[in-house]
Amino acid sequence: MTGPITAGIDGADESLAALAWAAREAVRRDVPLRVVHAWKHQPDTAPEVAGLDAQLAWVREGVERAVATVVARYPRLTVTTDVLEGPPAETLLAVAAEAELLVLGSRGHGPVVGFLLGSVGQQVIAGATRPVVLVRADDKPSAEAAGREIVVGQHGNPENSATALRFGFETAAARHASVRVVRAWTLPPVFAYSPASLSLLDEAGGPESFEKKALAEAVQPWRDRYPDVPVVEHVEMGSAGQVLLSLAGRAQLMVVGRRAHRTALGARIGSVAHGVLHHADCPVAVVPHD
What we know:
2 domains; two-stranded antiparallel ribbon; 11-stranded mixed β-sheet; 9 helices
């Protein structure tokens, strides 16, 4: 699927940073940019904009001002805008399904707190069928300078992380950046070992060698597809979230996979994606598994 890069905006500083990020990425990938504002009529506002028509005109004016900065900076970029009335989460999920990726802003209060995800952001990330990128208000183009990597989390067998790896390599190729693929591992409890698993570990030369081999097998298809993208294979003992966060300072973008968990309260993202989203100080792409 090849669609536009879609930025969801609401006028806040973080959404304008997301718009700027989305525009740069659209230029790199040579795809159109779609700018969407999802809104609901708020009658309890200032009298001059309380009416439906007046409020809609006010929203559209704000969108046009934001888009004008992008058009001025990238005159050859194809940009379309939509002001869509409806519940924000459902509206953004619908437009995300038609996009190459959806870019949203997220408030951050420094590297300790990282991203603050409201209910809309959580619903969109958990339910989207396409990648969703979260961008902080303080994001700067200089963070994409040469030397910063695309950091991608990998786990399980090659199929488990194929979509995240594909996205990471595509992004690196468009940016002429390197990719660091990270696989974290921990020693399981003694009772978790079986004769078959012990045999596999022995054949691989021990747990760390086993993990390195598993990572190499997952990465090889993408090395073959993107031979010009420099790759670092990173295996480290520790929890996946902690290992990835330790590398955030060298990342221009962090990519994690997401398999949504359905509960009585709705969809929930996994613990690794949740931890990275809340604490990384770089843009984060959450990529759903196929």
